[in-house]
Write a structure and sequence with these properties.
By secondary structure, this protein is of the alpha/beta class. It is built from five helices and six strands; from the N terminus they run E-E-H-E-H-E-H-E-H-E-H. It has two domains: 30 residues, no CATH class; 100 residues, 3-Layer(aba) Sandwich (Rossmann fold). Helices cover 38% and strands 17% of the residues. The strands form two sheets. Strands 3-6-4-5 form a four-stranded parallel β-sheet. Strand 4, helix 3 and strand 5 form a beta-alpha-beta unit. The chain is globular and about 35 Å long.
Length: 132
C-alpha cells in the first residue's frame, strides 16, 4: 500500500486515498475550521434545512460559522441568508455559493465551523466531502 506524507505533521498517513485527499484539499488552506457535510443523493430530503439549523445553533453558541452552498442550481441556503438579513435576524450567518468543494474548503479562513450543503446528486465531489 502506498503512503502519503502529511506536510504539517511529517507523519505517514494511511489509507492512501483518504489521507492524501485530505492533505491535497487542505495544503493551500490556512483554515483551522471544522467541517460538517450534509449529503444525500436525493433532492428534497431537508439537507439545506439541516445545514441551516446546525449553523444557527453553533452560531448561537458563539462559534463563527459559514455555510457553503454547493447547490448552485437552487441555492436555498443563500436565499435563506437574504431573508434573514432583510428581517434583521441575529445571529448573522454567512452563506456563500461555491461551484466546487475545493473552493469552499479554501475559503474557510479563520472560521470555527464550515457547513457544506451539498447538491442532490452523487459525484466525485460527494466523495471528497465524505473525506473531510
Amino acid at each position: 500500500m502506498r503512503q502519503c506524507v502529511n506536510p504539517r505533521s511529517r507523519q505517514f498517513a494511511v489509507p492512501l486515498f483518504r489521507s492524501c485527499a485530505k492533505t491535497r484539499l487542505n495544503e493551500n488552506a490556512e483554515a483551522n475550521a471544522s467541517f460538517i457535510s450534509i449529503v444525500s443523493q436525493k433532492g428534497g430530503v431537508s439537507k439545506s434545512t439541516l445545514a441551516r439549523l446546525v449553523a444557527r445553533e453553533y452560531a448561537n453558541a458563539g462559534w463563527s460559522v459559514k455555510i457553503a452552498d454547493l447547490d448552485i442550481a437552487q441555492s436555498t441556503s443563500f436565499a435563506w441568508q437574504g431573508r434573514r438579513l432583510q428581517a434583521g435576524i441575529e445571529p448573522i450567518i454567512p452563506v456563500e455559493r461555491f461551484g466546487t468543494v475545493e473552493q469552499a474548503i479554501r475559503s474557510a479562513g479563520q472560521i470555527d465551523l464550515m457547513i457544506l450543503d451539498a447538491p442532490p446528486n452523487s459525484t466525485a465531489a460527494t466523495l471528497l466531502i465524505s473525506l473531510l
